[in-house]
Amino acid sequence: MIKLRKILIALLLLFSSIFSARTVLADSVKELTNVITDIAIWDTSNGRYATQSDGVYQLTQNVSYSFEVDFDLSAYDGNLANGDYFTFTIPEPFTVASTSFELTDEESGVAVGEAVVTSNGEGLGATVTITLKNLEEYLEKTGGTEVQGVQGTFYTNFSVTEVITEETVTFDTTETTDTITHTIKVSERTSTDYSSVIGKTNFS
After folding, report:
1. Any signal peptide, and if so, which residues (predicted)?
2. What are the structural domain ranges in the chain?
3. What rounded mean pLDDT belongs to the chain?
Protein backbone atom coordinates (compact mmCIF):
# COMPACT_ATOMS: atom_id res chain seq x y z
CA MET A 1 0.00 0.00 0.00
CA ILE A 2 2.75 2.46 0.95
CA LYS A 3 4.63 1.65 -2.26
CA LEU A 4 1.49 2.41 -4.26
CA ARG A 5 0.98 5.65 -2.37
CA LYS A 6 4.54 6.71 -3.18
CA ILE A 7 3.77 6.36 -6.87
CA LEU A 8 0.56 8.32 -6.52
CA ILE A 9 2.25 11.09 -4.57
CA ALA A 10 4.51 11.61 -7.59
CA LEU A 11 1.38 13.14 -9.08
CA LEU A 12 0.33 10.25 -11.24
CA LEU A 13 -3.37 10.03 -11.95
CA LEU A 14 -5.19 6.74 -12.21
CA PHE A 15 -8.36 6.65 -14.31
CA SER A 16 -10.93 3.91 -13.84
CA SER A 17 -13.10 4.05 -16.97
CA ILE A 18 -15.85 2.06 -18.63
CA PHE A 19 -16.68 2.48 -22.30
CA SER A 20 -19.76 1.65 -24.39
CA ALA A 21 -20.01 1.29 -28.17
CA ARG A 22 -21.62 4.57 -29.21
CA THR A 23 -20.21 7.61 -30.99
CA VAL A 24 -18.12 10.25 -29.23
CA LEU A 25 -19.44 13.71 -30.07
CA ALA A 26 -16.87 16.52 -30.08
CA ASP A 27 -19.15 19.18 -28.55
CA SER A 28 -17.89 22.65 -27.68
CA VAL A 29 -15.42 22.73 -24.82
CA LYS A 30 -17.16 22.82 -21.45
CA GLU A 31 -16.32 23.00 -17.78
CA LEU A 32 -17.25 19.93 -15.75
CA THR A 33 -18.69 21.17 -12.47
CA ASN A 34 -19.46 19.44 -9.16
CA VAL A 35 -17.28 16.41 -9.94
CA ILE A 36 -14.94 16.32 -6.90
CA THR A 37 -16.34 13.83 -4.40
CA ASP A 38 -13.76 13.91 -1.61
CA ILE A 39 -10.62 15.76 -0.49
CA ALA A 40 -8.24 14.36 2.12
CA ILE A 41 -4.79 15.37 3.34
CA TRP A 42 -1.96 12.90 2.80
CA ASP A 43 1.27 13.08 4.82
CA THR A 44 3.85 12.56 2.08
CA SER A 45 6.79 12.40 4.50
CA ASN A 46 5.38 9.52 6.54
CA GLY A 47 3.36 7.70 3.87
CA ARG A 48 -0.06 7.93 5.55
CA TYR A 49 -3.03 10.22 5.99
CA ALA A 50 -2.27 13.31 8.05
CA THR A 51 -3.03 12.99 11.76
CA GLN A 52 -6.39 14.26 12.97
CA SER A 53 -7.47 15.08 16.52
CA ASP A 54 -11.19 15.69 17.11
CA GLY A 55 -11.61 16.27 13.39
CA VAL A 56 -8.76 18.80 13.17
CA TYR A 57 -5.81 18.05 10.89
CA GLN A 58 -2.56 18.37 12.88
CA LEU A 59 -0.02 19.81 10.42
CA THR A 60 3.56 21.00 10.84
CA GLN A 61 4.91 24.25 9.43
CA ASN A 62 6.93 23.92 6.18
CA VAL A 63 6.39 20.14 5.89
CA SER A 64 5.22 18.63 2.60
CA TYR A 65 1.67 17.29 2.38
CA SER A 66 -0.64 16.44 -0.50
CA PHE A 67 -4.31 16.87 -1.20
CA GLU A 68 -5.80 13.53 -2.20
CA VAL A 69 -8.67 14.43 -4.52
CA ASP A 70 -11.31 11.92 -5.64
CA PHE A 71 -13.44 12.79 -8.67
CA ASP A 72 -16.31 11.23 -10.60
CA LEU A 73 -17.34 12.36 -14.10
CA SER A 74 -20.29 9.95 -14.44
CA ALA A 75 -22.76 12.86 -14.52
CA TYR A 76 -21.29 13.58 -17.98
CA ASP A 77 -21.51 10.01 -19.33
CA GLY A 78 -21.77 10.11 -23.12
CA ASN A 79 -21.01 13.82 -23.16
CA LEU A 80 -17.24 14.03 -22.71
CA ALA A 81 -14.93 15.41 -25.39
CA ASN A 82 -11.37 16.60 -25.86
CA GLY A 83 -10.88 19.97 -24.21
CA ASP A 84 -13.47 19.44 -21.49
CA TYR A 85 -12.00 20.36 -18.13
CA PHE A 86 -12.60 20.62 -14.40
CA THR A 87 -10.82 22.58 -11.72
CA PHE A 88 -9.72 22.13 -8.13
CA THR A 89 -9.25 25.44 -6.34
CA ILE A 90 -6.84 25.32 -3.40
CA PRO A 91 -7.59 28.17 -0.97
CA GLU A 92 -5.40 30.14 1.42
CA PRO A 93 -3.31 29.49 3.55
CA PHE A 94 -1.77 26.69 1.48
CA THR A 95 1.42 27.15 -0.54
CA VAL A 96 1.52 25.22 -3.82
CA ALA A 97 4.20 25.18 -6.54
CA SER A 98 3.27 25.59 -10.21
CA THR A 99 3.72 22.39 -12.20
CA SER A 100 2.05 20.19 -14.80
CA PHE A 101 1.69 16.48 -15.47
CA GLU A 102 -0.09 14.14 -17.84
CA LEU A 103 -2.96 11.85 -16.88
CA THR A 104 -2.13 8.48 -18.41
CA ASP A 105 -4.48 5.52 -18.60
CA GLU A 106 -2.58 2.45 -17.43
CA GLU A 107 -4.32 -0.08 -19.66
CA SER A 108 -3.91 1.71 -23.00
CA GLY A 109 -0.86 3.84 -22.22
CA VAL A 110 -2.63 6.88 -23.71
CA ALA A 111 -2.33 10.27 -22.02
CA VAL A 112 -6.04 11.06 -21.69
CA GLY A 113 -5.62 14.36 -19.89
CA GLU A 114 -3.28 17.03 -18.65
CA ALA A 115 -3.18 18.71 -15.26
CA VAL A 116 -1.79 22.22 -14.89
CA VAL A 117 -1.17 23.57 -11.39
CA THR A 118 -1.03 27.37 -11.22
CA SER A 119 0.29 28.82 -7.97
CA ASN A 120 -1.12 32.05 -6.54
CA GLY A 121 1.99 32.61 -4.42
CA GLU A 122 3.12 31.75 -0.91
CA GLY A 123 0.15 31.07 1.33
CA LEU A 124 -2.30 32.07 -1.39
CA GLY A 125 -3.35 28.68 -2.73
CA ALA A 126 -3.50 27.57 -6.36
CA THR A 127 -5.75 26.32 -9.15
CA VAL A 128 -5.45 22.83 -10.64
CA THR A 129 -6.99 22.55 -14.11
CA ILE A 130 -7.46 19.07 -15.57
CA THR A 131 -8.21 18.96 -19.30
CA LEU A 132 -9.25 15.84 -21.21
CA LYS A 133 -7.40 14.96 -24.43
CA ASN A 134 -6.67 12.11 -26.87
CA LEU A 135 -10.04 10.48 -26.22
CA GLU A 136 -10.40 9.22 -29.80
CA GLU A 137 -6.99 7.54 -29.62
CA TYR A 138 -7.96 5.96 -26.32
CA LEU A 139 -11.25 4.63 -27.67
CA GLU A 140 -9.54 3.30 -30.79
CA LYS A 141 -7.13 1.29 -28.65
CA THR A 142 -9.82 0.00 -26.32
CA GLY A 143 -12.54 -0.63 -28.91
CA GLY A 144 -15.07 1.81 -27.46
CA THR A 145 -16.65 4.93 -28.92
CA GLU A 146 -18.18 6.72 -25.93
CA VAL A 147 -16.59 7.57 -22.61
CA GLN A 148 -18.53 6.57 -19.51
CA GLY A 149 -17.94 5.95 -15.81
CA VAL A 150 -14.75 8.00 -15.53
CA GLN A 151 -13.56 8.37 -11.96
CA GLY A 152 -10.19 8.54 -10.25
CA THR A 153 -7.86 10.18 -7.77
CA PHE A 154 -5.06 12.71 -8.11
CA TYR A 155 -2.61 14.31 -5.70
CA THR A 156 -1.35 17.89 -5.39
CA ASN A 157 1.54 18.78 -3.09
CA PHE A 158 1.36 21.70 -0.65
CA SER A 159 2.84 23.11 2.53
CA VAL A 160 1.83 25.73 5.08
CA THR A 161 4.45 28.34 5.91
CA GLU A 162 2.76 29.98 8.90
CA VAL A 163 1.82 28.77 12.35
CA ILE A 164 -1.97 28.56 12.74
CA THR A 165 -3.83 27.91 15.99
CA GLU A 166 -6.92 26.71 14.15
CA GLU A 167 -8.53 27.60 10.84
CA THR A 168 -11.38 26.12 8.81
CA VAL A 169 -11.18 26.21 5.03
CA THR A 170 -14.06 25.54 2.65
CA PHE A 171 -13.45 24.28 -0.87
CA ASP A 172 -15.25 25.74 -3.89
CA THR A 173 -18.79 24.32 -3.89
CA THR A 174 -19.08 24.66 -7.68
CA GLU A 175 -16.31 22.06 -7.96
CA THR A 176 -17.43 19.56 -5.30
CA THR A 177 -20.50 17.33 -5.15
CA ASP A 178 -21.13 18.36 -1.53
CA THR A 179 -19.73 21.02 0.76
CA ILE A 180 -16.23 19.98 1.88
CA THR A 181 -14.44 21.75 4.73
CA HIS A 182 -11.22 21.02 6.60
CA THR A 183 -10.12 22.42 9.93
CA ILE A 184 -6.35 22.63 10.32
CA LYS A 185 -3.88 23.40 13.07
CA VAL A 186 -0.31 24.17 12.02
CA SER A 187 2.40 23.82 14.65
CA GLU A 188 5.89 25.24 14.54
CA ARG A 189 8.53 22.85 13.30
CA THR A 190 10.88 21.84 16.11
CA SER A 191 14.41 20.47 16.17
CA THR A 192 13.02 17.02 16.97
CA ASP A 193 10.79 16.97 13.87
CA TYR A 194 12.47 14.60 11.39
CA SER A 195 9.75 14.77 8.72
CA SER A 196 12.03 16.16 6.02
CA VAL A 197 14.64 13.45 6.63
CA ILE A 198 12.02 10.72 6.45
CA GLY A 199 10.63 12.26 3.30
CA LYS A 200 14.02 12.32 1.58
CA THR A 201 14.69 8.73 2.60
CA ASN A 202 11.35 7.42 1.38
CA PHE A 203 11.06 9.33 -1.87
CA SER A 204 14.61 9.72 -3.18
Report:
1. 1-21
2. 28-182
3. 84
Q: What's the pLDDT score for residue 128?
A: 98
Rounded to the nearest 10 degrees, the angle between the axes of helix 195-203 and helix 2-9 is 90
Give CA–CA dist 85/95, Å, rounded.
Answer: 23
CATH topology of domain 28-182: Immunoglobulin-like (2.60.40)
